[in-house]
Amino acid sequence: MTLLKRGLSRRRVLQTGMAGIIGTGVSPLIFSKGAWAQEFCNNPTGDTVTFGLNLPLTGAYAEEGADEQKAYELAVQHLNGEGDGGLINVLTPTALKGNGVLGKKVAFVTSDSQTKADVARAGATRMIERDGAIMVTGGSSSAEAIAVQGLCQEMGVIFMAGLTHSNDTTGKDKRRYGFRHFFNAYQSGIGLAPAIVDAYGADRRAYHLTADYTWGWTQEESMKAATEGLGWQTVEAVRTPLGAADFSQYLTPVLNSGADVLILNHYGNDMVNSLTQAVQFGMRDRQANGKDFQIVVPLFSELMAKGAGANIKGIFGTSNWHWNLQDPGTVAFTKSFGAAYGAPPSQAAHTAYVQALLYADAVERAGTFYPPEVIKALEGFEFDGMGNGPTLYRAEDHQCIKNVLVVQGNDAPTSEYDVLNIVKEIPRDAVAYDPTIFGGDLGPAEPVPMC
Amino acid sequence: MFEVIFLQFLNGLDKGAAYALIALGLTLVFGTLGVVNFAHGALFMLGAFCAVLFRQLLTLETVTVDPTKLSPWGAPLEVREPLVQAWFGDFGAVLVNYSVPASIIITIPIMLLVGIGLERGIIKHFYKRPHAEQILVTFGLAIVAQELIKSFFGPNPIPQPMPSDLRGAADIGAFLGMQANVITYPIWRLVYFLFSFAIIAGVFAFLQFTTFGMVVRAGMADRETVGLLGINIDRRFTIMFGLAAVVAGMAGVMYTPILPPNYHIGMDFLVLSFVVVVVGGMGSLPGAVAAGFLLGILQSFASMTQVKSLIPGIDQIIIYLVAVVILLVLPRGLFGRRGVMES
Amino acid sequence: MRAMSRNDLLLFLGFTLVVLAMPLWLQPFGAAYPDLLQRFMIFGIFAVGFNILFGLTGYLSFGHAAFFGVGSYAAVWSFKLLSLDAIPAMLFAIVVSGLFALLIGYVSLRRSGIYFSILTLAFAQMSYNLAYSVLTPITNGETGLQLTLNDPRYLDAAMGSAQAGQPVPTLLGQSLGGFAGFYFCAGFLILAFFIAQRITNSPFGMMLKGIKSNQTRMNYTGFNTKPYTLAAFVISGMYAGLAGALLAVTDPLAGAERMQWTASGEVVLMTILGGAGTLVGPVIGAWLIKYFENIFSAINDTMLHRFWGFLPEGADNVMVAITSKFVGEGWFLTLGLVFVLIVVFLPGGIMEGVRRIAHLFNRQRKSPDRPASQVQPAE
Lengths: 451, 343, 379
Prior knowledge:
Strand order of the largest sheet of chain A: 7-6-8-11-12-16-17
Strand order of the largest sheet of chain B: 1-2
Radius of gyration of chain B: 22 Å
CATH superfamily of the largest domain in chain A: Response regulator
Number of helices of chain B: 16
Oligomer: heterotrimer
CATH architecture of the largest domain in chain A: 3-Layer(aba) Sandwich
Strand content of chain B: 5-15%
CATH class of chain B: Mainly Alpha
Number of helices of chain A: 13
Number of domains of chain A: 2
Structural class of chain B: mainly alpha
Largest interface: A-C, 56 and 54 residues
Shape of chain A: globular
CATH class of the largest domain in chain A: Alpha Beta
CATH topology of chain B: ABC transporter involved in vitamin B12 uptake, BtuC
Helix content of chain B: 55-70%
Distance between the termini of chain B: 48 Å
Shape of chain B: globular
Number of domains of chain B: 1
CATH architecture of chain B: Orthogonal Bundle
Order of helices and strands of chain B: HHEEHHHHHEHEHHHHHHHH
Largest sheet of chain A: 7 strands, mixed
Strand content of chain A: 15-25%
Number of strands of chain B: 4
Number of strands of chain A: 17
Radius of gyration of chain A: 23 Å
CATH topology of the largest domain in chain A: Rossmann fold
């Protein structure tokens, strides 16, 4: 068992830290500039700094988790000045030097989140308490992200969210210590609606099948609002249990409902199964109201989309990012990732990589690991070159405002990775929204002295 | 309204047949041999992956790397050429097209081996052990099986296309002389429905009308006496376990086009299979079939918006609600016998 | 009540010592950090409680996670509505889960054997499915119930003890983070163990064991067994509620997935793995499974390279490649293998192994002709 690092307890670190301050007789200076150096959670004292990666290594999203892990390992290499430097070369503005973060080498610890909020929280706690993680990142669901960022707020540790698409993450459950690069359901709705109205006409009747939990509801609401605003009617919105496996009993009523579009507000395995089965019900060969019946999947997971096979062809949806973009950032990242792992990166890998770099960059710009200063550096940060065009880390809700991709299942894929085509890049001004519409409260930046 | 109800009823029958078939293997092991087999889901999953394996073998490709060209992510371009078509020509193409039903050819021997190996290696030591220990060992085996599958096939679902002739929906309404294009149903699901019937009838006939079946039924009732009569009951139980594994595996194979298989689909069906078997009554094959249909039809109707607006969330719990009501009204399920698995 | 026998007292003291010293002796295993220690305590309580039902009466409940989850929800609601103090939250959680157990137990105990198991499973799955979807106003669904800054907290407000910053549960104003939280939970585990021990040795416990070995005979002797089994069911439901509440105290979040059937299955596995019917076994089973889930799953290739570093170049890579299949994302595989090996070679769980080793020593010391059947399981 000696292979496990014998961590110092949090308390001991704090005690020795405080003793050091008092012992050197600098206590009167403690409130002057730079004096916060000793009194926050997991202040790195050695020559390394540890990132905590919270990844779904088992369960339904293990492939996403594996891809995120690859991306983080690549990011760590690039931060430490190994490899080809990846996106460090194209991020503007950047304070990164390729010599670690503030001169400290980056190391990482991992934890299996199993895509469960409870387990993710336990893993994050372990990485903070035992392994001394200065920052926690990763995840594959909104429940995880919201649970972990709540914890990180308590502990005073910054959380850079991975895959999370619910409006709540930067809406009613937003936290001062949580940051999201990924887009959200609301942006999917306002980005996708004009594109499908354009393609299928303004006179359509939509039938929603929605995963019966918070993410599904926000997705359904966003899609309904956005499509109805452009003239579509909603025939019915039916909730389906999470993990239903067989969706046939929800698909049969669609056939004679008078709808001519089916919108599947499902993600992951639910999306794979409901889409596969909807196609088997002949929905794509069907005529309704004198028009061709259509299926729309608002959020694509391209790793999962492979599971739907040929059924995905021609289906509209949205994506945070895709490796087929042609900007220098995307090209650099795809090349770097492809060279290391022999396959193009997924959007999960991309958002993970970018989050790690953005955190490191913010620390460099702040000149300290002290979280409130790092938060200040991230809030309102305007940057470019990461593959999504000019991007703003909005200060009001910690949501990245950037372009959203409308994508369509590829009719003639050239390889197993080539499942999606980019139809349109929606400029970020069109998908920006008023951060107050979702409520919520970021909470204080000053960490509670409990960690 | 009529067509809506008719479709929902048809869907209920279809779901019911699927539930009955998925639970059939469990009835044989759990309901008759009395082993609480938490590896049943894993057997279903292994069957599904027999189809995946068969298709992967059929679609093996020669990969030549073309260093002059690069893929968009910077690796040398790989040129792939399918082998089966190269060897067998048109027949190869037909085989690939029909890979799902054709993979039953390899599923039967593989699952038979798995089942017999499992029974001889481990399960036979557990017939007289407490149910709790049976649960622990079979659950452990299920985990091992699914983790092995994960390490070979990855965690994501792998799509299994159905034969192109059986794709799409059939117009049942027109077939029955009603208005065209109103009552349509996927052809593959109809195939699965018929397949379920054939398998269930076959197993039933086997147990009811052959000497082997008679001996097994006798052995279930009184194992010691049958043993004293000089009959090797152990061997017959082994074969029964193998048979159950084959049935579970075939249910898995034919389900792959409906549900792209991943390594944990077995766990998703485990609880459902137990509910079907217990609601049907322990040890009763007709009971399991009846329970399958009952649960399927009720679930289908409970999912209608009209019903859901009356009782919110009813489609989420209907299966369990029915199980509770049936077990409280009929102490041993629909057709259960006295004294089986009650202590 | 009778006084404790010498053996029982020794067992209790030994158990207390082992639990309280955990931060020390778990250091070399990399598990001596507060969060995992708290979980060891919490799931220990859960398993001890489950064993009161399953180990003593033989009724195998497959829905105990429901009481655990209800306990968590009740505790978090108490934090939101009443006070951030842990005591009202835990009392509230125990009462609510006890009532819930009374309801479900009353219905489910009308059947026995596998029919009972399926009834409890059905109730738990219904709770889980509803908590995830239509009960979202109460449970906050997928996201889980969390504390927020603008919760009312009427009791705290009345006392005028408003707190600044993110709300965290306290005990009489003391924070329960870190090792304080561990000792708080450890106190409850020791108490839970003590009560379980007294129950096992009481006439009530005897009655339950009688039900396990032959319920029909108990009925024929004129006993109405139902109140006894129901009492055992409610007690073990309250244990589960206590464990759920403690989890909410140390980490104020309640999610629906802790009510899923896999969570119910987990406590069954913990109990059988350690040794059903024994007092210490279920606790050990709980510790082992939680250790795997938290420590084995976190070992990555870098750590393995460090571990095998003493081997010559090449050989270490081979060893890393082999071992990495069993740790990190492969921790589940290892757990499955452990289940199979233990149950095949040690029927009766880990405690059976302990007993065999103890027996080996006893035989060396005492006369060798003592028949093996003398060593009875401690059930």
